């Protein structure tokens, strides 16, 4: 984590570059670099706040705020009217967590340990919730494709109701994993370790608020330069949302999954990668749809056929890899290969 602190120098640089009217490509790059350490600090502050609560409250706090940085970035883009970019970032986040992050973790851990095992209980429940998440994204796409709605009015209204149902599903998953069946998940994580909180509760809350506010400010800078920057880079806004923004927003969290895998703590590595995908599909995406009403931006859950198919394939491949509750380096390499194939396809899409 400490090595990220050096990147904080890019926070004032990004703001000054924007005020000074620097080229959009330069503003985009420095603001992207600034968000990486801020998202890491936000995650650390969230964990620190959770340490001062009960295990149940701390678990809910960590689970619900795991993708706060990504939510802030997407909310800023949504308010700016970049709905396609926001929807692409949702798809990209799910794909990057399931294929890139998990693949890198399995490869790194597999190169150190011949075979790595984890709980079948975790694998089974994760696969089921992922399938439900795909279900919630496929139905709106089918509705839009089969229902004549050129202005997408009915699609947006339908998405509001589906968003509420998906959030309810996420709440049910939290109750299951942190409440009614927490003993099974706790056993998967190993015996509890008592560690003194590194920050006081007041300090943790202050850092959390400062990090969130800073991400919001830098996200404004990033979004303002995105449209011009993608033209200079020769990339589509769709590709930037699918590939670049998810990597930027989740860089710190992604490194945690790899570190856990290299320590042979595969239950935690899977929780980070797969749990983040579940959160994006069942919480972040629905919240953004509801925020669309607040910002007067008609966002819906009807993703393109390519996006829905890619998510479905990613869930299918991931479920196939984890269903036997053990992994090796080859499975990690194949997940990375699948992500690369999708990346190439989206580049030319």
Task: Give an account of the 3D structure.
The protein is mainly α and 349 residues long. The chain has a two-stranded antiparallel ribbon with strand order 1-2. Helix content is 80%, strand content 1%. The protein starts with 9 loop residues before the first helix and ends with a helix. The chain has one domain: NCX, central ion-binding region (A middle domain of Talin 1). It contains 13 helices and two strands; from the N terminus they run H-H-H-H-H-E-H-H-H-H-H-H-H-E-H. Helix 4 (68-79) packs antiparallel against helix 5 (83-112). The longest helix has 33 residues, at 201-233. It is globular and about 50 Å long. It has helices at residues 10-19, 24-51, 55-64, 68-79, 83-112, 120-146, 153-180, 182-189, 201-233, 237-262, 266-294, 305-322, 329-347; strands at residues 116-117, 326-327.
């Amino acid at each position: 984590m400490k090595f990220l602190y050096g990147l904080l120098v890019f926070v004032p640089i990004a703001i000054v570059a924007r005020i000074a009217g620097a080229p959009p490509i330069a503003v985009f790059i420095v603001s992207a670099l600034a968000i990486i350490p801020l998202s890491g600090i936000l995650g650390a502050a969230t964990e620190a706040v959770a340490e001062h609560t009960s295990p149940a409250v701390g678990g809910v706090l960590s689970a619900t705020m795991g993708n706060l940085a990504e939510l802030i970035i997407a909310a800023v883009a949504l308010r700016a009217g970049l709905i396609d970019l926001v929807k692409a970032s949702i798809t990209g986040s799910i794909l990057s967590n399931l294929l890139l992050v998990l693949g890198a973790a399995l490869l790194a851990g597999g190169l150190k340990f011949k075979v790595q095992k984890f709980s079948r209980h975790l694998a089974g429940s994760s696969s089921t919730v992922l399938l439900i998440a795909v279900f919630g994204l496929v139905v709106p796409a089918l509705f839009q494709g089969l229902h004549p709605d050129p202005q997408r009015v009915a699609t947006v209204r339908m998405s509001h109701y589906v968003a509420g149902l998906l959030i309810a599903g996420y709440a049910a998953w939290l109750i299951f994993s942190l409440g009614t069946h927490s003993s099974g998940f706790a056993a998967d994580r190993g015996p509890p370790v008592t560690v003194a909180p590194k920050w006081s509760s007041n300090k943790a809350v202050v850092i959390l608020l400062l990090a969130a506010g800073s991400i919001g400010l830098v996200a404004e800078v990033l979004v303002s330069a995105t449209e011009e920057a993608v033209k200079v880079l020769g990339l589509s806004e769709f590709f930037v949302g699918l590939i670049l923004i998810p990597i930027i927003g989740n860089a710190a969290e992604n490194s945690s999954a790899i570190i856990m895998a290299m320590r042979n703590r595969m239950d935690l590595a899977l929780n980070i990668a797969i749990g983040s995908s579940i959160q994006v599909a069942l919480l972040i995406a629905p919240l953004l749809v509801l925020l669309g009403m607040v910002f007067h931006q008609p966002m819906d859950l009807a993703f393109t056929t390519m996006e829905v198919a890619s998510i479905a394939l990613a869930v299918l491949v991931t479920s196939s890899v984890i269903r036997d509750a053990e992994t090796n380096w080859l499975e990690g390499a194949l997940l990375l290969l699948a992500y690369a194939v999708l990346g190439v396809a989206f580049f030319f899409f």
